Amino acid sequence: MTKRFLRISLIFTGLIMLFPAQGIADTPFPSIHEPEGEGVKCVKDEDEMRRNHMNYILHQRDKTMREGVRAESDSSYSLAKCINCHVQPNDKGEVPTHDSKEHFCVACHQYASVQIDCFECHADRPQKYIKRDQSPRALKQQLKEVLDAKDMGDAQ
Questions:
Q1: Of 18, 35, 46, 59, which has the most beta carbons under 10 Å away?
Q2: How far is CA 51 from the centre of its chain?
Q3: Where are the alpha helices (DSSP H) in the chain?
Q4: Contact status, residue 87 vs residue 128, Cβ threshold 8 Å
Q5: Is the dihedral of CA 120, 38, 106, 53 positive or negative?
Q6: Gap between the Cα atoms of 98 and 116, Å rounded
Q7: Among 98, 130, 100, which residue's Cα sits nearest to residue 117?
Q8: Residue 95 DSSP class
Q9: What is the pLDDT of residue 47?
Q10: d(CA 129, CA 123)
């Protein structure tokens, strides 16, 4: 019985060596757009940010939301600063949004199979690339339309 099990194991191992799993090693690690603009270097090294960026962002959120700290000089880990450096126009001059594969956050989050919910409230592009009418009335009207549409969707 033992020899038979050993023989089957060796045959199976040989087949695995001849036909390795195809999809596993072929998945490339996502490329990350290097920071540009305000900073040339990220606030932490790349490995540290890959592992712990969510902790820095949550800590910053707590300081802002619970302690009321909104000083620009004290927000090294704000989501807006990440977006301002890492989200840049592509070769065609288009700035990717969070639903595009070109967006800085999307590639890694898809790779790790993690949902991004930051952009339900936060801007997914640097402020300088968001085109807005300068009139406050137009912004209030836009907000009203969005909220009305959401209320209509919730009511259905």
A1: 35
A2: 13
A3: 2-18, 22-26, 46-67, 79-86, 104-111, 136-155
A4: no
A5: negative
A6: 9
A7: 98
A8: P
A9: 85
A10: 10
Q: How far apart are CA 5 and CA 111, in angstroms?
A: 38
For residue 36, which amino acid is it?
A: E
0.85 surpassed by pTM: no
- Which residue type is seen at 79? L
> Sign of torsion, CA 105 110 112 115?
positive
List the structure tokens of 121: 């409230």
Question: Taking the chain, what is the end-to-end CA distance rounded to the nearest angstrom?
Answer: 65
Residue 94 has pLDDT above 80, yes or no: yes
Retrieve residue 68's tokens: 């009321």
The percent of residues above 70 in pLDDT, for the chain, comes to 65
107 token code pair: 């590639």
The Cβ of residue 42 has, within 10 Å, a number of other Cβ atoms equal to 17
* Confidence band for 135, pLDDT divided at 50, 70 and 90: low
d(C-alpha 33, C-alpha 102), whole Å: 9
Taking a C-beta distance cutoff of 8 angstroms, is the pair 32, 107 a contact?
Answer: yes
Q: What letter does residue 156 receive in the DSSP assignment?
A: -
- Tokens at residue 40, please? 């040339």
* 3-state SS record for 82-94: HHHHHCCCCCCCC
Average pLDDT for 39-59 = 82
